[in-house]
Amino acid sequence: MDLAVEKRITDLSFVATVGFFDGVHIGHRHLIDQVKREAERHRLPSAVITFPVHPRKVLQKDYQPALLCGFDEKIEQLATTGIDYCISLPFTVELSQLSAKEFMQKILKEQLHVDTLLVGYDHRFGHDREDSYPQYSQYGKELDIKVILATELQFEGDDVSSSQIRRLLKAGKIKEANELLSYNYRLSGKIVEGYQVGRTIGFPTANMRVWERFKVVPELGVYAVMVHLRDLIYAGMLYIGRRPTLHSDSEVSVEVNIFDFHGDLYNQSMSVEFIDFIRSDRKFDTKEELVAQIHQDKETVKQRLKNKK
Question: Which of 45, 133, 254, 296 has the greatest number of CB atoms lying within 10 Å of its CB?
Answer without folding.
Answer: 254
